[in-house]
Amino acid sequence: MRGTYELVIKDAKGCETEPITFNFSNNITPITIAETVTSLGCGEDNSDGAISINISGGRSPYKIVWEKQIPGTQENPTPTYELIGSNLLSINNLTAGRYRLSISPSILTCNNPQALAFTKFYEFKPIETIQVLEGPFLNRSLCLGEPGKLQLKVFDRNSSTFSFYYDGELVSSESLGNETFELTIEAPKEEAILNIINEFGCGTSIPIITGVGNPDFSYTSNSLEQTGLISANEKVTFSNVSLDPYVKMEWDFGDGTEILEINAENEATTEISHRYTTPGSFNVTLRFYNNLGCYKETLKEVRIGKGFLVIFPSAFTPNRDGINDIFEPKYTGIKSLYLEIFDMWGNVIHNVKLDTLPVSMGWGWNGTYSSGKQYSHKSFRYRFSAITHDDQEINYTGEATILR
What is the model's pTM? Predict the structure, then answer.
């Protein structure tokens, strides 16, 4: 034990020497280490962490213990330790977590705590990889296999500079702010890999698949099978007859009703039915989407009843308020038309001929003569003729009112 001691020698007659003083102190220096720590690299579940040490001080041979901390639970928050190596000067293949190094002499020599024991903790934190927060979003050109644009939102805590490689080739990119980038893809492919690399060489990869299956469908009804015509208000059954894959499909029945979407949540729907409340000709569209929003569509014309429908307003209000300012019929199923407006004495005051339909709204009569003067009477007559899609000629005549 360290301290100051005196030695006195006494003979048989009781004579004593002068005290001889001895000072004892620990001559073992504390344990210290020199270390080299290799941090975790890029990517999740990385295991390339490593620690190497050189020991000095203390008393060799040493007992070296490496342990990994196991976090406690809610019931027992005290952590425990799992042995991962003994008597090693280096340890490799470390993953994210907290580690404990303990060093002590193999042979007990003194009670100097610093010489007897050394403990140190190490913590390895994973390097956050690049995260794609939104997208990628492809424009229509790129979806069709033509040169186009791609947008995505990228986040990296350690970097804001990225390089983008499409199918192994560096592509031009532009920062749009708010961590959003727009890429220009000159040579798109149906299937490619987009690699995103930050300035430290860490990166992530996402597949870019523009290919979409080819949609096709059939339709039937009871009266169609019996008479060759579909009646208004009867159930029409639509069937997807394509075997190509899709992530989502959409049915647009062409009559202004809500688009029906079939996805993973309701894909068990096997029978798609719809009722048309009025006669007419309707363009039904079926779209197939892939997981990047690219789509292909097919369109078929479905004729209900006569196959055409023309509805005339009974009055209009040409007061330039943007509501009901023009007299023109609503129609479906026709490909050309001719409209004449007459005063109450049979004089033609306006006419319009359209050889190609459809056209934008506002093609009808605005309530004036060709000179621009307002028509001053409250009633007028009209005559309407048209050619349907199956080349039938139809004619209507009637009378309507101007409300000013």
Answer: 0.50
